[in-house]
Write a structure and sequence with these properties.
Number of strands: 0
Helix content: 55-70%
Radius of gyration: 21 Å
Distance between the termini: 51 Å
Largest sheet: none
Oligomer: single chain
Shape: elongated
Number of helices: 5
Structural class: mainly alpha
Mean pLDDT: 75
Strand content: under 5%
Length: 166
Amino acid sequence: MGSTGFMIALSVLLIVGAVAGVVARRRAGRTRRPAGRPGRPGRSGASGPSGLSDLDAEAEANHWLIRLGGGLVPPGAGAWAGADEAAGRALTSAAECHRAARDRLSGARTAGEYEEVTRVAKEGLEHLRSARAALGQPASAAVDGPALPRAARVPAAGAGCAVTSR
């Protein structure tokens, strides 16, 4: 084997080792399952306050975060350029909630953490609704969907995202 072949083999081994190290580290960082509970550690069972499994809570958090992100870039974005102060504050708060939820999602591992991401994203959607109302735009069912539960409502429009990133 020439020096080129040796370098290729060494590169492949280093890449495989790095991937194995990342996988091992992620698995070690997940919560351990209690004795007698079937399934993969940290990824099954009703461990969140709402009773969702970790995977279900993760899927729901992703769903709400995508809805918020889609609402921040509407088809008629030109109308937002002339936003008044209240609409501007609400849009800024929605963007802050999107950033905070995205940051939390990147580190979430349990159903409770994913549910916190969902809560922050829903809060951002409420800010987005406030901004649309201030601009006189109709609610977008495609982005906003059905009304949020009362628990997810924001007390004051433009008050900022109540959750800051870690």
